[in-house]
Amino acid sequence: MANHIEEAKSGRASCRTCKKPIAKGELRLGVEAANAFGDTPAMQWHHLPCAAHKLPKELEEALIAYPGDVPNRGELAQAITLAIASGHAKPAGLPAADRAPTGRARCLQCREPIAKDALRVAVERELEVGATVQSGAGYLHPACVGAYLEAKGGTKDELLAGVRANSRLAAADLEAVVAEIGQ
After folding, report:
1. How far is it, in rounded angstroms, from Cα 98 to Cα 129?
2. 79 to each of 35, 47, 75, 89, how far by Cα in Å?
3. C-alpha distances in Å from residue 104, one per residue of 45, 70, 117, 157, 178
4. Can you give the pLDDT at residue 73?
5. Which domains does the chain possess?
6. Cβ-count burial of 169 within 10 angstroms (0-12 exposed, 13-18 middle, 19+ buried)?
7. Which residues of 76-100 are buried (b: 16+ CB within 10 A; e: fewer)?
8. What is the C-alpha separation between 51 and 46, in angstroms, rounded?
9. Which of 33, 139, 148, 174 could form a disulfide with 109 if both were Cys (CB 3.0 to 4.6 A apart)?
C-alpha cells in the first residue's frame, strides 16, 4: 500500500505538515513511514495543498494513480511545479541536495553555518541520544563534501548517484551542486 490519496474516514487525523485536523470526507495524501512499534509501516496523512509544497513527487505520483475527481487539481499541479523549482521540497532519501529552509544548520565538515536558501547536501549520520543511537540527516556545503568523504571513507560516485536520485531541485540547481561536489 504505497503512497495514495483517499477521503478521510473520520476527522481524527492531523496533517503531518501543518498539524491541523483533516476533516472527514476531505481528500488526503497517505505516505508510508517506518513504524517504531512494529514491522508494518504506518501512514502519515497530509492535506493535498500541504503535500504539494513538502512532498511534491509523492503527491504527483498519487494524483496520477487516483481514479477519482480532485477538485483543485490545476492549483495542485501549479504548487507542485513551484515546490520543485524552489528546491525546498523534502528529499526522497539520503544523500540528497536541497536549499536550506533556515540558517540554523551547520556544516558537518567546516562547522560554519549554512545560510538560508543556500544549496546544501544532506547525508545520513548517527546521533547518540541517551543510551541509543539514531540515524538522521547532517548537512554539508557542496564544497566541503570532498573533505568529508575523505575523512569518512566514502566515494564521490556513490554520493553523486544518491544526490541525483533523491534530490528535488530544479535541474540547473542540481547540476550546480554536482559541479561543486565534483571539483
Report:
1. 26
2. 29, 13, 6, 11
3. 27, 37, 11, 28, 23
4. 94
5. 4-86 (3.30.1740.10), 96-182 (3.30.1740.10)
6. buried
7. bbebbeebbbbbbbbbeebbbbbbb
8. 6
9. 148
Q: Up-side HSE of residue 35: CA atoms within 13 Å toward CB?
A: 9
Mean pLDDT of the chain: 91
| 97-123 average pLDDT score | 95
Q: Are 26 and 34 in contact (CB under 8 A)?
A: no
Helical segments of the chain, H only: 48-54, 56-65, 73-86, 145-152, 156-166, 171-182
Lookup: cell for 86:
524552489
Using DSSP bridges, classify how beta strands 42-47 and 96-99 pair: parallel, antiparallel or unpaired.
Answer: unpaired
Output the pTM of the full model.
0.69
Identify whether the C-beta of residue 111 lies closer than 8 Å to the C-beta of residue 97: no
> In 28-49, which positions are buried (b, 16+ CB within 10 angstroms) versus exposed (e)?
bbbbeeeeeeeeeeebbbbbbe
Tell me how far apart the terminal alpha carbons of the chain are, to the nearest angstrom: 42
119 burial (CB, 10 Å; 0-12 / 13-18 / 19+) is buried
* Amino acid in the structure at residue 16: R
